[in-house]
């Protein structure tokens, strides 16, 4: 069991969507926060309050910089990671997500931190390969995924999912060596942030008033809930466990309709058959290559958008009495935030 609560926390990945909201939550609770950033990078989504954070220049791949930043007896939140569904990023993603996590875990063990929190992803739980999860037009019920889901090798596991799974193995290895730790597995995370990144590209897709919507289900959680859950778990006695964070599951069509309404855009009206999504992503890749931008749709995201999975986010509700924000309010806030040009919540 962790010792008495410190009032200091160290955060990696603090300038990203989830990390920045975790930092803001800790600051609002009166904590002293220190954070890691690469020497050449800015303050990202914390630019407006950068002076309230003690910054360490470094990198999760640079062990001496971690040793200089992580102090004995503190809490450590490891939110740094690379999310990409582009093949060219696979090797870099493996180094950052797996080797980087191993480095942070090892330094935490060496210096003796109070408690370690890892921001993983629901994709780290894997995806069963049987047919019913991949055919929205079938008569089968969606597959439920909870914290007891066992990883199995499957063509539906993306390179990103594999790196998060391997990263979790490093955390569990740390637990076996004496680290007090907790893992969160957020679903697709919505919030106001950098619209070019990861899950928020859904918003850019709606902004461009595209024609098609996929037939699958999407598991969603508010970034504010992710931050609150991480902080509350770190302050609790929970250790050696993982928690899926999912505020609800809705069809992609419903998400697109609600976002479009909030953004005053025309919603996609045509359900894309699977063969259509297989055709769209290569065309989007070519468009992005010519424009030197990130593609709105990749092979991985096109495939995942047709899957029928429901993530069970109830464990944290039972453990902490946690309550998720209504998805309708989250979607409305995010859509309005994009329209207003906001960069953070």
Q: What's the SSE pattern?
A: EHEEHEHEEHEEHEEHEEHEHHEHH
Sheet of most strands:
7 strands, parallel
Low-confidence stretches: none
Number of domains: 1
CATH topology: Rossmann fold
Give the overall silhouette.
globular
Strand arrangement in the largest pleated sheet: 3-2-1-4-5-7-11
> Helix/strand/pairing class, anyone?
alpha/beta
Helix content: 25-40%
Distance between the termini: 34 Å
What would the average pLDDT be, to the nearest integer? 88
Assign the CATH architecture.
3-Layer(aba) Sandwich
CATH class: Alpha Beta
The CATH superfamily appears as: NAD(P)-binding Rossmann-like Domain
- Helix segment count? 11
Q: Please tally the β strands and state the result.
A: 14
> In what range is the share of β-strand residues?
15-25%
Radius of gyration: 20 Å
